[in-house]
Amino acid sequence: MVENERSASSDTTTQDSTPLQPAPVRGPRGAAARPNPKLNTGPLHGLWALTNRDLRKWYTNPYQLIISLIQPVIWMGLFGKALNFGSLLSAGAGASGGNPNAFMNSLFGTTSYFSYLVCGMLIFIVLFSSTFAGMSVVWDRRFGFMNKALSTPVSRGTIVMGKVLQSVIRSVIQAGVVLLIGIALGMETSNLTVLGLAGAFVVIFLVAMGLSGLFVMLSLRSTNWQTQMAIINLLNLPLLFASNALFPMGNPLFGAPVWLQDVVKVNPVSYAVDGIRQLLIGATGSYALWVDFTVVLGFAAFFSVVGIVMSWRLLSK
């Protein structure tokens, strides 16, 4: 009897000391429910989704691409062909006995002004495409998409880089189309190489990233598209005309004021165009090629980083 009581007490103790296991959570049909998936909050999460969203509005509407190419084609076809410095200098040289090719080389770095202008048009299209990277931020804020994006786990820096990346992709594609049109209209191709093409598009990529980062940064707190358009008009024309994209402003032989030559030397667009001309048409550069790459790389890195850092403080609902 005593042994039976001890056995029962031992069984009870063993049962009481065994921890209770929680019953598995069952779904509506009795199946075990899956745990909630972890949210992906990495720095690259959502980058391509945001980039492709803006690109889709562009590549599904071919009229935007056609319209964006009209202006550089007009510059090349009308301005580039009408302003024939080679013929003008040859006529003057016939009367004075001078050498027009030598003067063209000393002034433009090449004997073909049209080829000189085509390289400038590559940065022209990049500049005007990059300015509208900031406009997309303003429109997203006005139509409520920015508030939705800020409510997701996607970081603010990713939102900014998505805007920059879509602008860079558009700029590179449009620059490639402008280059093909320029070749068809008579650009010199004797110095064109695969390595030169690759280097030129690296420069285009970097300057597009820097310019897009600059204009996105300026639009982070803007809600008025008119204000943003005023900023675009304030910056894009000085960046273009205070560079050597159209004329050799930095060359003292051109006769530009000294203060304007100094502005050209600090304009990153000048270094981008100078590097492209050396790589595509073999022009004599105003700067060493490594200097052009260094300046453009620093320009792209600076405004990309500054744009991300400022987005942490300025980009909000």
- Helix and strand content put the structural class at mainly alpha
Order of helices and strands: HHHHHHHHHHHHH
Indicate the low-confidence ranges by residue numbers: 12-20
Task: For the record, give the distance between the C-alpha atoms at the N and C termini, rounded to a whole number.
Answer: 78 Å
The coarse silhouette is elongated
- Portion of residues in helices? over 70%
- Number of beta-strand segments: 0
**In the residues, how many domains can be counted?**
1
Strand composition percent:
under 5%
The major sheet is characterized as: none
- Average pLDDT works out at 80
Radius of gyration: 30 Å
How many helical elements? 13
Provide an overview of this structure.
There is one protein chain. It is built from 13 helices and no strands. With 317 residues, it is an all-alpha fold. The longest helix is centred in the middle third of the chain and has 30 residues, at 113-142. It has helices at residues 2-17, 47-59, 62-82, 85-96, 100-108, 113-142, 145-150, 156-185, 194-218, 225-241, 258-266, 268-280, 289-314. The termini are far apart. Helix 3 (62-82) runs antiparallel to helix 6, helix 6 runs antiparallel to helix 10 and helix 8 runs antiparallel to helix 13. The chain has one domain (66-314). The model is unreliable at 12-20 (pLDDT under 50). Helix content is 72%, strand content 0%. The chain is elongated, with a radius of gyration of 30 Å.
